[in-house]
Amino acid sequence: MTVKYTNVCESANTFTFCPFIPKNKPAATMLLDENPADLIHHTIGNFNIQPDKQAVSRVNDSLTTLQQSRDLRIREAESSLRKLSRHLQSLSTQHEEAVIAHDAGRHAAAMVELDTKKFRIAKAASELEIESERLESELEMLKDRLADLEAQGLEGDEVTRREREADDAILLRLKIYRSLGIDIEPDDAGIFTKAVIRNSRKGDVHVVNLDPKFSRFFYSNYFWSTMQG
């Protein structure tokens, strides 16, 4: 549209530009020199609505994504709720069964039995502690005895050497008797009170009780005659 300003209008001591309108043409024809359809088309073309369309598209995509995310979260929450409901139902059933199966009398008896076991264990622990103290005391005594023996050496003191020599003589005699088929047996006090004489030729076994009122010569002759058969 082309508007021509060719004259000046005077009004209230002010000057404004007024469009020049020929006298032989209507005002509407002078204002719109171009086709209104073309004018509207050019006007629409001058508006850049592509960014707005892209923004609207992005908003729609965001809304779609948000709706999908919400739907997914709702489905997950519903699934979790169903699982929790089933678990709650199972626990409720177990609780009801436990309440029905609970026997107060049997529970009290079990508690009494556990208390009895507890007292027995405490008593056994006390006895073991006493026994441990006794063994520790005995161990200390044995350590002292070991220290004394180590101080005496391999030969020991005079009394020990004499006892060992006497024992060696006794062992030698017992060995000689055993080679002849005679076993000398001691009693609980360590005194030789019994002799077992075996005759290998006849397969006989004679048991002789040794009495101190008889002499050694008597028993020597008796043993010899028994072995000769």
Automatic annotation (TrEMBL):
**UniProt key word Magnesium:** no
**Coiled coil residues, start to end:** 125-152
Primary localization class, coarse = cytoplasm
Keywords of the record, alphabetical order, are: Cell cycle, Cell division, Centromere, Chromosome, Coiled coil, Kinetochore, Mitosis, Nucleus
**Transmembrane annotation, as ranges:** none
Recorded GO MF terms: microtubule binding
What compartments host this protein?
Cytoplasm, Cytoskeleton, Microtubule organizing center; Nucleus; Chromosome, Centromere, Kinetochore
Give me the Gene Ontology terms describing cellular component: microtubule organizing center; Ndc80 complex; nucleus
Return the InterPro entries for the record. Answer: Ndc80_Spc24, Spc24_Fungi_globular_sf
- Enumerate the Pfam families for this protein: Spc24
Similarity field: Belongs to the SPC24 family.
Quote the function comment for this protein.
Acts as a component of the essential kinetochore-associated NDC80 complex, which is required for chromosome segregation and spindle checkpoint activity.
Report the protein name in the record.
Kinetochore protein Spc24
Q: Which organism is it from?
A: Aspergillus rambellii
